[in-house]
Specification:
By secondary structure, the protein is α+β, with helices and mostly antiparallel strands. The chain has one domain. Helix content is 20%, strand content 14%. It has one helix and four strands; from the N terminus they run αββββ. Strands 1-2-3-4 form a four-stranded mixed sheet, with no helix packed on it. Strand 2 and strand 3 form a beta hairpin. The relative contact order is 0.16.
């Protein structure tokens, strides 16, 4: 059982280390991995403005974003719902 938990933790850490800073002036506050954008746990109060349109997964939990415009994700046509 301990072995399984250890393997899961190691795999999770490896996935996180593959995430690289995103390019662009605003999105640099997030990390990217392929088409996934990780902005969770950041001190964001607004949605970054330069999220790549190819983004399929956007993680915004544990931020200070309290409201989003109705069309906030309109340009993110590849975003999974």
């Amino acid at each position: 059982m301990l072995y399984v938990v250890t393997v899961i933790v190691i795999v999770s850490l490896l996935k996180q280390t593959n995430a690289l800073p995103c390019s662009g002036p605003q999105i640099s506050v997030c990390d990217c991995e392929d088409t996934k954008v990780y902005c969770y746990g950041r001190n964001l109060t607004t949605l970054p403005s330069n999220i790549p349109i190819t983004t399929t997964d956007l993680y915004l939990s544990n931020t200070y974003i309290s409201t989003l415009a109705e069309d906030a994700f309109a340009d993110l046509v590849s975003l999974d719902s």
